[in-house]
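Minutes, project check-in
Item: structure for the 346-residue chain
Input as provided by the requester:
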Amino acid sequence: MHLILRPIARSAMRAALLLTRRRCSTRCGVARVIRQSVRPRGRRAFTLMEVLVAVTVLAVLTLLIAQITGSVFDAIRISNRAVDAAAQSRLAFDRIGLDLNAMIRRGDTDFAGKATTAPSNDFLLQMIASSPSSDPSPGFQNRGLSLVGYRLAPHSGNEGRPCLVRGARAISWDTVGFMGLDGTGYPVKFTEGSYPVKLADADFDILAPGVFRMVVGYQLYPDNEEVYLADGTKIDNARGQIVYSPPVYGDTAPDNLHPDLTRVSCIIVGIAVLDLNSLKLLNAAGVEALAASFSGVPATNMMPVQKWMADTANLTNLPAALPQPVRSSVRLYQRVYPVTPYGSRE
């Protein structure tokens, strides 16, 4: 029995050993395959053409972004300059409007107005108004009235550049003769040496440093009556025409020396303005040269801005030495102030 089982046991052991070897070889082969599959392959680098294309695309994108950014900053700069000029014009117009609304309009009170002046001490507007102002004199008692004037003149606070300045001097209770009629039956004029209140240079403050030109016009009352102007012109039918010389009472002295505001429906004020950044590029002589490009008085029935736009439509009319930023920064504004609205005279 023992002899019979021994060969069978040996055969079983050989079979088990063979099976074990096969399993081991299979596992080793799989591991070898796995190790080979996870080995990193060699990486291929960019070619020179690919690098050049990438650099070109990046450069184009950078240039486009730079141009867009520059355009945005230019637009912001232009917008800021426009806002600054508009703010100056609004301040000037509002102040003039307040004084015109407070103007004492009586037959014994003078009014003075000029269409336009070169930068000088000539008054563009002068009036008696119930506008507040102060006087540093000890014991001064303010009557509540002031002599108010506007002019274009050089000012030390603007580095000697001409600009729009406003002056006001309070009238005290003990001041006499600033209202009333002279021997001709007309109001005492501001220009007379005996007039008790005068505006000195110290009474003027800068109203708008960038305003280098101002013009004052008058829209006549819309009726068919004849009108005489201070420059000697006679208009047969007023009909609401726009003129740049104040209407007066007649064509001979003393009638032609005194403005007649009852013949004025509206006062028209036009100004030319530079923003402060552009103004810094000019000295006093440069501002005066620029103002000379806007000289002259508009024709009858022409608004101030209409004339100035026609005069400067060709930029060659501006001074040759004018910096380019200044050429593109001049802005024009105008405003109309009712004085004798239609129907108020009847």
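Outcome recorded: The two ends are 157 Å apart (CA to CA).
No further action items on this chain.
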